[in-house]
Design brief:
With 229 residues, the protein is an alpha/beta fold. It is built from 6 helices and 7 strands. It has a 7-stranded mixed sheet with strand order 3-2-1-4-5-7-6, sandwiched between helices. Helix 2 crosses helix 3.
Length: 229
């Protein structure tokens, strides 16, 4: 419990390298040190193993979003990860996590434990409703252009991931998107390959417009998607 509520205890140097070049480059030793010291003791390695924590940290520290949007709050682990990253690397960011209303019956509705890892953190805002709709409402209420990062959980169906990703890419200026559960395996595995297929379908015909960085070696898998420079 002491670790759980020890907010932003240690600061780390900016890991970005060669910011004027075309490719994402970060100091992986800095990020690794942060994950070992500042992240794993708080959030562990489930459901996000080390390579996925690396990709999440890379995305946030490189693009330095002003707003992060995610939905499917559950106990708030992904929101907590984003919070710890922004605090450790001095990134000013508000994090908005959206979930179904507490009285809606759903297999992943955690009830009273919803957001338990983030409820005391003022930089994290918990909302009820449809995730992508709520995110657009917040974005539309802001007058200036902002840098956003979206976290789309692949626990949802192929159809919903595809629909949400298409909406984000169409309606948001220069979005950065992290998608979870994107590992692809052949049909014999019986894995959920819907999110992987959804990404392919959402950018079909425009593959050259996007950069894609993925963790490939096993479940659950994560993909970072963003516009090329």
């Amino acid at each position: 419990m002491k670790r759980l509520f020890n907010f932003g205890a240690e600061k780390f140097p900016d890991p970005r390298l060669n910011k004027d070049c075309t490719e994402i480059e970060v100091n992986k030793w800095v990020i690794s040190n942060f994950i070992v010291k500042g992240l794993v003791p708080v959030v562990g390695v489930h459901p996000y193993p080390l390579d996925e924590l690396m990709l999440m940290t890379t995305a946030v520290t490189f693009f330095r979003p002003q707003y992060i949007f995610e939905w499917g709050t559950h106990i708030g682990k992904s929101a907590r990860i984003f919070y710890e990253i922004t605090k450790a690397f001095n990134i000013t960011c508000s994090i908005h996590s959206v979930d179904l209303p507490s009285d809606v019956k759903h297999i992943e509705n955690p009830g009273q434990t919803r957001g338990m890892m983030v409820k005391e953190i003022k930089e994290i805002f918990l909302h009820e409703g449809n995730g992508v709709t709520k995110a657009f409402e917040i974005i539309n209420s802001i007058s200036e252009e902002i840098q956003t990062l979206f976290f789309v959980d692949g626990d949802h169906s192929f159809e919903s991931v595809k629909r949400e990703l298409i909406l984000i890419l169409e309606k948001v200026h220069n979005p950065v998107v992290l998608l979870h559960d994107t590992f692809f395996q052949s049909a014999e595995s019986n894995y959920n390959i819907g999110p992987f297929r959804a990404i392919k379908e959402a950018i079909k015909g425009e593959e050259n417009c996007y950069e894609i960085i993925s963790t490939h070696s096993g479940l659950p898998g994560m993909t970072l998607l963003f516009y090329k420079k």
